[in-house]
Design brief:
about 110 residues, alpha/beta, Rossmann fold, about 10% strand, globular, AB_hydrolase_1, hydrolase, hydrolase activity, AB_hydrolase_fold, Alpha/beta hydrolase
């Protein structure tokens, strides 16, 4: 799975690299809510939380029955990936292998 950074589409972030990702049989490049071709359910722009983005990615993975996969994530996508891995570990699910590119950190 390839997760993009804030304000851009997954395809814009990763399309130049896709030909080089030959080790994976399948690749999932979702757009996080409100970015790329995705939208907010109410049709208006709005704030999103890391928890909300994580829950939506987890729902997609569950729907697709993806349980064992690797993640490449950039910026905001890195923060979502870290949170996703943490949430999955709390649920007893297999941890993901991750390659994080400039993961965003929101600390105090």
């Amino acid at each position: 799975m390839l997760l993009h950074g804030a304000g851009v589409a997954g395809s814009i972030t990763y399309s130049p690299m896709l030909p080089y990702f030959t080790q994976w049989r399948w690749m999932l490049v979702p757009d996080l809510k409100g970015m790329g071709d995705s939208f907010h359910h109410h049709g208006e722009e709005g704030a999103v939380s890391i928890g909300e983005l994580t829950d939506e990615v987890e729902a997609l993975l569950s729907h697709l029955e993806w349980n064992d996969f690797d993640v490449v994530a950039y910026s905001l996508g890195g923060l979502v990936a870290l949170n996703l891995n943490y949430q999955r570990s709390l649920q007893g699910k297999k941890k993901m292998k991750m390659a994080l590119l400039e993961p965003r950190f929101f600390g105090s």
